[in-house]
Amino acid sequence: MNAPTPQRECLFCVGTKEECGKIGGCRLMLEGMERKSGGKDVCSPTLIHPLRTPPLDLRYSDTTFRVEEFLVDIPKYAILSHTWEKDEVTLRDIQDLHEAKGKAELEAEGPKKQAELLKAEKIQRKAGWLKIEKACEYVRQYKFKWIWIDTCCIDKSSSAELSEALNSMFKYYEEAHVCVVYLSDVSIEKNVMGLEELKKSRWFTRGWTLQELIAPRYMVFLDKNWDKIDTRFGIRHIMSEVTSIPVEVFEEGSLDGYSIAQKMSWAASRKTTREEDMAYCLMGLFGVNMPPIYGEGGAKAFIRLQQEIIRYSDDRSIFAWVARDRRDRGMFARSPSEFASSSRVGVSVSDGLGDKSSFSFGNNGLHIHLPLKPLCDAGKDIFYASLHCRDPNGVIGIYLHKQGHRYVRWRPYFSLSHTDEPLGKLQEVVVKEGGAILRQLVNVDIPVQLKLDSDISLLNIEDGNPFLLPCLSAHMFKLRTKKGNAFDIKLTSWTGDVIPVLRMCLLPVDNENALVSFFAHTTGDSSNQRVFEINYIPSSTAKFQLYRQIHKFRCTSHVLTSTTLNFTVDGRSADFFSAPSVFPSEFRWMGDREEVYLSVSYPGEQRNIHCVFQYQDLWFDNVFMALGLRTDSKRRIPWVDVFALTDALSISDVWESYLPLGSRYERRKVGTAATVLNKWRSLAVIVEEKILLGSAWYHVVLTGKSN
């Protein structure tokens, strides 16, 4: 699948007058007037929208900006990734600023001139204006003349331009020479920042920043003060820990081999301001295009996205999701959050299906060939369908219910089921509904310039600086700290963009009382140079503590739990007053006072897994029911206990009482339990075992009886 191709890009100019010149191919270029700044001729600080015709001289600071639109011959540019805050600068603001500054220039001194200047000053006081200035200031250090910023490079008043931008966003970030990530809620200047503040940044929770994390070639992360934190490569293990994206994606830069379900799981916990954007922000990740229709709702937009994906892919893992509500429905998920448990689902293997491996969506539903196995114990016309994709537990399957000549997905809130191999007879069914292309690597020689901290000196200066680093080669440098301790560094180039640009490594020096950090940064001019920054970090600084944590950090394995038990708890004959409370809260459950569905997952060897339900009956008794796994048998048969209290007792205390040293540990009953509520009533609990293919399922019935 091809990633979307941008038709045009709107960029900020951050270069000097001599550097900028005229770049052909933009729809309309307007030049500002010149002014002196520090003895250097620069472009006037002009932001120019390409649809305006009169040239305007907008002097508001010593920073030089202008906005241009490019149809062809797009220059090298940087790109900003950030989270939107209040008071962002929009393209409309820039247009108003041009207009106000222009009118002020034409007016003589007086009230009208002052009014226009105040209007312009109000725009420049917006909080988002400083972000624009700082972003341009940062990339100008590395000789970039152009930067793309989403807040003010898209005309959101034009539905056509907005649609084009949303469909091209992945490409914009992929083709940028560097992506600058601004984390407005992280500071490395604090005495003890630790990794937790970095991992809790709002940037990792937003939907649009997922593709902004994956698409760019090179990324550098900056804190709220625009100080370097690290690069994507340098903190790749932290990125993997926070996002659940395999660290290999950041190391190898390839999405090949990752299933649709797995990619969807990366977005499962992310949020967007507009619900439809949760679908639109994933278009580039899957290399598809579709028009945005704000107002259609998040679920409908996400279904449209999946229908677009299956036009180009026959990966059946797209159906490996678990619903967050209790309604039967079709084969498409309603949100990326329903793929939360699919992070280890592989690409489906359907070679054995031959010409029956493809599937399509029509006006009467999804047409697909699936192996179906009847489940007589589950009810009439209930079938188990294998999806031909695996996770570490086996081949994944789902349940279908035949209704007339079509099917619906039955109990989609059940956890994904597993078998050793696909089961059943292959049949054509109709289920009714209620990658990004990566750049090719080339071998090139790269010019490198060393930029040394004042506390570090280069010993083998005969090698020259800058110098040319041939592809597939290595170069050794000898350096020394002010304290006289020498150390070596080695630069190695590989196929592609030799040195991983913006990569940072750390080296303890001076008896581990300091660190030396290494940044390789790309430049935006024709030299294609890599500026290799070598900095000395004493142990007395906050950055020293942060970098030591980064250097030692390794992400934990994102392994799915190996076994899942599904419970349905039927309390219709127990006269409960309301829906129960369930502890621990991390167990996934849904329901009401009459029926509750609960899914309990656990690692293969983990024991003492249990949960507690707390009900209140019509006589205001607190009724506690505990369910859990037996520890004295290899079979995962649940135990049950039930009791009632009129006194207050926390549900967490009840849960702890069933631990091995707890007061109720010996009360675990296999399959049945009972308690007296009062002198008039009793309550009995029976656990009925229901075995569906690939899944353990238990039906728990609570029954009230008169004494």
Compile the SSE list and pairings.
Elements: E1 9-13, H1 17-20, E2 34-37, E3 40-43, E4 66-70, E5 78-81, H2 91-106, H3 111-124, H4 127-140, E6 146-148, H5 159-175, E7 178-182, H6 194-199, H7 208-214, E8 219-222, E9 228-231, H8 236-243, H9 247-252, H10 260-266, H11 277-280, H12 283-286, H13 298-309, E10 360-362, E11 365-374, E12 382-391, E13 394-403, E14 406-409, E15 417-419, E16 425-431, E17 446-452, E18 456-458, E19 467-469, E20 474-481, E21 486-492, E22 504-509, E23 514-522, E24 530-538, H14 542-552, E25 563-573, E26 581-583, E27 588-591, E28 595-602, E29 610-616, E30 622-629, E31 638-645, H15 651-656, E32 669-670, E33 672-676, E34 681-692, E35 695-706
Parallel strand pairs: 5-6, 5-7, 7-8, 17-24, 25-35
Antiparallel strand pairs: 1-4, 1-6, 2-3, 8-9, 10-11, 11-12, 11-16, 12-13, 13-14, 13-15, 17-19, 18-20, 20-21, 22-23, 23-24, 25-28, 26-29, 27-28, 29-30, 30-31, 31-32, 33-34, 34-35
Give an account of the 3D structure.
The chain is an alpha+beta fold and 707 residues long. 19% of the residues lie in helices and 31% in strands. The strands form seven sheets. Strands 4-1-6-5-7-8-9 form a seven-stranded mixed sheet. Strands 10, 11, 12, 13, 14, 15 and 16 form a seven-stranded antiparallel sheet that branches. The chain has a six-stranded mixed sheet with strand order 27-28-25-35-34-33, with no helix packed on it. Strand 27 (588-591) and strand 28 (595-602) form a beta hairpin.
